[in-house]
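Bench notes, afternoon.
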Amino acid sequence: MIPKNTLCLWYDGTALDAAQFYAKTFPDSAVGAVHRAPGDFPAGKQGDVLVVHFTVAGIPCIGMNGGPGMKHSEAFSFQIATDDQEETDRLWNAIVGNGGQESACGWCKDKWGLSWQITPRVLTAAFTDPDRAVAKRAFEAMMKMTKIDIAAIEAARRG
């Protein structure tokens, strides 16, 4: 059954590749139905992959091969909460090491231009700490990072 609400992500002919990468990289992710175009369309030919149903960390998505007309932007990102440095490193390195690029404060982009926030739960707890001095120290430490370093966040939290 098709979910009532699904994220639709636009790709330039690479939706299946992206979905397969997400499925092997993120827990609770999978590739579902792959639909091929019943006829020629502006970005492809009959028989090309048109739509891919997949999940990323339990979120239902559709990848649509709509062509080069639309690009992903930082206005949309997946935020993946991680439990430890090992998981943070694994996911970050998978994205960046597969043709992606680093950004600031735990953000990176995959090779398809989709933005990801790899966010340790420790970081979220630190910058939302009720003690505003603790939160500020953790936030300032995060602002100097690309991939989040949990030990450095914890050290900043302790002061």
